[in-house]
Amino acid sequence: MLELTMATVSAADAGATAGMTMAQAPSEPGAVLRVGRDAAVCRLVVPEDWLFVSRVHLEFSCGPDGTWRLTWLRGSQPDPASEVRLTVGESTGTLGYGATVPLPRGVLGEVVVRDRGAPRSVDVGFCHEA
Fold it and tell me: Which region is the signal sequence (predicted)?
């Protein structure tokens, strides 16, 4: 099971937890959870005017062995308007544009999508159950 909790944060409401949304999916091959502006394909949807987030920005997908992977999907622009940082356990790093990383089982983590042009972010916490 993968559980996601998302909060959108701007300078005006930093630290607030109102508006948090959640999604979950079983660890079955082919299961997918997406984050972005397009409500037709994303389970976690950010405000439409937050253009630093692509229509489909992040994809959590479950592979044939039940292991979840995170992909920062490439958008329509060659250079992204955001940066993505990933924290897994005590380790933090930047996720490359178009990159995919596995999510270890039994850990908590966070993905932060930061606007490069304004003090806004999309914070997605995750728990990949063992």
Answer: none
